[in-house]
Amino acid sequence: MLGFTVLFALVFALWVFFNASTSIPVLALGLPLSLLVAALSSKFLFQRLTPDALHMRRYLSAFLYLFGFGKALLVANFNVIAIILSPRMSISPGVVKIAMGDANEDVLAAVANSITLTPGTITLDAVPGALYVHNINCNPADSKIEIKKGIVGDFEHSLRGVFQ
């Protein structure tokens, strides 16, 4: 029931925001439509929603993840542009196994998708406890910790705060 209420409130607020009006006809149409959307999709979106899921630390972790991911995305784009525009291709591509420890499926999926969205890297496989990632620049002299920090960054820590 909590998921239904949260989704209804969110959809209705978005309805009012995007219509930029609080007139009676807009509210009268938005109310049943928001109820319908919430009734049809809340079961699927919020199967595991508990009061703990609404804890403020999750929102802080999500904010930190989005900020860190945006920064990593920007840096990776500039790195790939520099590689493309350089007259000499100084890349050493390779596949790296990144240990993820006891991360649950949600964390693994979110980290894998974050890596894939970042230019120059793609997640090839996600198995319990590890990700296999193709990276445009793999320096074999780097330690496993340096490689993980360079590819995953702080994604894992922030996403653990969101999903665990």
Which features characterize this protein?
mainly alpha; 164 residues; 6 helices; elongated; 3 strands; three-stranded antiparallel β-sheet; 12% strand
Structural features, described:
With 164 residues, this protein is mainly alpha-helical. The longest helix is centred in the middle third of the chain and has 30 residues, at 56-85. The chain has helices spanning 2-19, 24-45, 56-85, 105-117, 144-152, 155-163; strands spanning 94-99, 121-127, 130-135. The chain contains six helices and three strands; from the N terminus they run H-H-H-E-H-E-E-H-H. Helices cover 62% and strands 12% of the residues. Strands 1-3-2 form a three-stranded antiparallel sheet, covered by helices on one side. A hairpin with a 2-residue loop joins strand 2 and strand 3 (130-135). The protein has two domains: 2-51, no CATH class; 55-163, no CATH class. The chain is elongated.
In short:
The chain is built from six helices and three strands; from the N terminus they run αααβαββαα.
The proportion of strand residues reads 5-15%
N to C succession of SSEs: HHHEHEEHH
Low-confidence stretches: none
The number of helical runs is: 6
The total domain count is 2
Task: Count the beta strands.
Answer: 3
Radius of gyration: 21 Å
The average pLDDT score comes to: 85
Give the N-terminus to C-terminus distance in angstroms.
22 Å
| Major beta sheet, strand line-up | 1-3-2
- Major β-sheet, in short? 3 strands, antiparallel
Label the structural class. mainly alpha
Classify the helix fraction into a percent range.
55-70%
Oligomer: single chain
Shape: elongated
